[in-house]
Amino acid sequence: MTPTSVGMRCPECAKQKTKVHRGPAVLGDEPRVTIAIIVVCVIVFLAQGSFGARESGGSIYEHFALFGPYVDRGDYWRLVTSGFLHSGIFHIGFNMYLLWVLGQQLERVIGSVRFGVLYFTALLCGSFGALVQTTESGVVGASGAVFGLMGVLAIEQRRRGYDPFSGGLGGLILINLVIGFIPGLNIAFGGHIGGLVGGLLAAVGFTVADRMRRPWIGYAGCLALAAIAVAGAIAVSGNLHSYSL
């Protein structure tokens, strides 16, 4: 018999190696960026004064919602600020719940800096996608960025050997995408698709960068994606007809 760390084993068994699947390393104790984003969204929602099931309007909405003609005239901040506004209690409740579920998993694994970069990259890609889809109404909500986090989590699971569809993440993405196409709900599905694609591409970029042991490549890729999204949003806005919020 051969002494091992788990007790006495026969020589044949002692030669065998057991495969160990390691879970993702935890880099931080608290998802600070996730919490900060939720806090800002809640404060802005309270400041809007719209507490109904589905409402929009007021000076905050007018000056910070995503609206193509206003982006065309130079209100570029709307590409970011629209991601912190919501149109009703159910809208913000659903988005903040998903943001917490996804954010507290991802941020602890990939770190706050990388998480923040991925979030805002997906947000800008979502704004671009929303402007590609809609021309006649304002768009608000963190949905594009949240869909981006779904894409990031799917890539992170794949790189660690997990099937996103076996754990329900793939189904969650598909269900929410389908809901966006239901008539009458007035959902900016273009923002969902744009955010998801942006999150997937950004996460793939970081995966390649990590394999090359060049993390800066991932950040450079996010910067390039964000620049393309902003340039695309401005270009699309320039082709829109003039409407009013």
Description:
This protein is mainly α and 245 residues long. It has one domain (32-51, 63-238): Rhomboid-like fold, CATH 1.20.1540.10. The protein contains eleven helices and two strands, in the order ββααααααααααα. It has helices at residues 11-15, 32-48, 58-64, 68-72, 78-81, 89-110, 112-133, 143-159, 169-179, 189-211, 215-238; strands at residues 2-4, 7-9. Strand 1 and strand 2 (7-9) form a beta hairpin. Helix 6 (89-110) runs parallel beside helix 8 (143-159), helix 7 packs across helix 8 and helix 10 (189-211) runs antiparallel to helix 11. The longest helix is centred in the C-terminal third of the chain and has 24 residues, at 215-238. 38% of the residues are buried.
Q: What does this entry show, briefly?
A:
It is a multi-pass membrane protein. The chain has 245 residues and is mainly alpha-helical.
